[in-house]
Specification:
Length: 389
């Protein structure tokens, strides 16, 4: 049993928040291809939902990661996964390394406002020519006195159009690809709210996750103080690998919400008549839904085991990668079967099952593609000799 009464109470509070502050507006946000992150995050920050695991001196609750995992699971039930993903970036993707390795000054300037909901954060790892292959990144931060001068670009950046800052992984020296990278906090806006000099963006129209704004960001000799670097120079790859574990567990936990899709499909099939009886009376449909729920509960067990090990300080690269792999594939399978069973109604654009079909598809691509997860798992098993991704 992973969750205590305190976990469950927090999840219940989040579900109520979602029903009141997110679900009534998702159709509007999907159509606009953006949700009001500053407004929503401020409400979440006031309730303590953005700093669950973060240090108390910076406004966090100082709880262990199992509470963040519980929050991710609850947030996954939002009617638009793009909103859930945007929240996940703020809590479990852009801020863990800053909280763990950033200087006090850096955490006061960027982490505390992110926890409070006063700033929107983004994470910059992928590039047009380097997604899952993190070691191949080309964006470079050249040292010039007390500044870094950054040139390059980042791709698929969630929250980009609204973000106040980005946690940027880039090269800070030549040499071995796993030892020449650093994480740097780069402000995307100046004090007046205007775009930082040297930064430009192109918004990306995606297949799914419509309510999440996503962009390619270009850096043209952008000056950032060296003090904005997280931790030691050259340790960025290591910091990001640790950050990935929380990202992958967050994504897997959010996919547990597919249980709602199964339940909603079953309810629809109880009402839908075909050949004189409810479609749910079909034994094949009954067995397939039972099988899908069984697989989902197996994923839940894997996510909980991985989280428990992570909280205990154990290496969870293998377990987190397994959870991420399983979540991506199972989410796709559940959405596909639920659409099939709902037939023509399921295929309509505004149906929740078609939105899930589009949104869940990212699970096998973003945050490390299925093929990369398999490579990581194989390496952890000792089946191959290469650097972990």
């Amino acid at each position: 049993m992973l969750y205590t009464v305190q976990h469950l109470e927090m999840m219940d509070g989040l579900r109520k928040f979602i029903r009141a502050e997110i679900d009534p507006f998702v159709d509007e946000w999907e159509a606009a291809e953006i949700f009001p992150a500053h407004e929503l995050f401020k409400k979440m920050g006031d309730l303590g939902y953005l700093g669950i695991t973060k240090p108390e001196p910076y406004g966090g609750l100082g709880l262990d990661f199992s509470y963040a995992l519980a929050a991710s699971e609850a947030i996954g039930y939002a009617r638009a996964q793009g909103v859930a993903m945007g929240i996940g970036v703020q809590t479990n993707m852009a801020t863990p390394a800053l909280a763990a390795f950033g200087s006090d000054e850096l955490r006061l300037e960027f982490l505390a406002p992110a926890i409070a909901g006063d700033m929107v954060a983004s994470i910059g790892v992928s590039e047009a020519g380097a997604g899952s292959d993190v070691a191949s990144l080309k964006t470079f931060a050249k040292r010039d006195g007390d500044d870094y001068v950054i040139s390059g670009s980042k791709m698929w950046i969630t929250n980009a159009m609204q973000a106040d800052w980005i946690c940027l992984l880039c090269n800070t020296s030549e040499g071995q690809s796993h030892k020449n990278k650093s994480l740097i906090i780069v402000p995307l806006k100046d004090e007046s709210g205007q775009r930082t000099v040297g930064i430009s963006m192109n918004k990306i129209k995606k297949f799914g996750m419509w309510s999440s704004d996503t962009a390619q960001i270009f850096f043209d000799e952008v000056r950032v103080p060296v003090r904005n670097r997280i931790g030691e120079e050259g340790m960025g790859f290591i910091y990001q690998m640790k950050q990935f574990q929380e990202e992958r567990l967050d994504g897997a936990a959010r996919r547990l919400s597919a249980l709602a899709l199964i339940d909603e499909t079953a309810d629809y099939l109880r009402q839908r008549q075909a050949f004189g009886r409810p479609l749910l009376d079909n034994q094949f449909i009954q067995y397939k839904l039972a099988e899908l729920k069984t697989e989902l509960e197996a994923l839940r067990a894997l996510v909980y085991v991985a989280t428990d090990a992570y909280v205990k300080g154990q290496n969870v690269i293998e377990l987190a990668s397994m959870a991420k792999l399983k979540a991506g594939r199972l989410g796709r399978e559940i959405a596909d079967w639920c659409m099939q069973f709902q037939g023509g109604m399921g295929y309509t654009w505004d149906n929740p099952v078609s939105r899930a079909y589009r949104d869940f598809r990212l699970g096998s691509i973003g945050g490390g593609a299925d093929e990369v997860m398999l490579m990581v798992i194989a390496r952890q098993m000792g089946l191959m000799n290469m650097t972990s991704v």
